[in-house]
Write a structure and sequence with these properties.
alpha+beta, Mannose-Binding Protein A, Chain A, 2 domains, 4-stranded antiparallel sheet, two-stranded antiparallel ribbon, about 20% strand
């Protein structure tokens, strides 16, 4: 009977060692996989440095200029400050159609894009804004 209890205890001890040992190897395996992924990520980042991007990542290239479409609203004065900090200018309407505001309330000196095209509004109104700057040449 004592031998049977000893065998059962020994089997339990071996089982505990095996379970614990496999957990360590899984942890080590996970750590090695993480290191491999981080190495690949570093390689990809290094490759991106050699790509030619005429515009910053969050800007859009269109007809030889870079455009940033804001994701938050500001009034005209705040938009001017933001564009200065980015080294850009606010988009200016240059078409004849865009130069014909209706100025309904006598204080609509700014414009927004609406479903019907351009619409003039008060410069104190909060709106999304668009910045524009020239493309950057790629260094060789």
């Amino acid at each position: 009977m004592l031998q049977l209890i000893s065998i059962v205890l020994l089997a339990g001890l071996l089982m505990a060692i095996l379970v614990k040992g496999s957990g360590v190897s899984k942890y080590q395996e996970h750590d090695l996989e993480k290191q491999h992924i981080l190495q690949k990520l570093d390689q990809l980042k290094a490759g991106l440095d050699h790509l030619c991007r005429h515009c910053p990542w969050d800007w859009t290239l269109f007809q030889g200029n870079c455009y940033l479409f804001s994701t938050f609203q500001k009034n005209w004065k705040e938009s001017v400050t933001a564009r200065k900090n980015m080294g850009a200018q606010l988009v200016v309407i240059k078409s004849n159609e865009g130069q014909e505001p209706n100025n309904d309330y006598g204080n609509e000196d700014c414009a927004v894009i609406s479903n019907d095209g351009w619409n003039d509004i008060s410069c104190l109104a909060m709106s999304f804004w668009i910045c524009k700057k020239p493309v950057s040449p790629c260094s060789t």
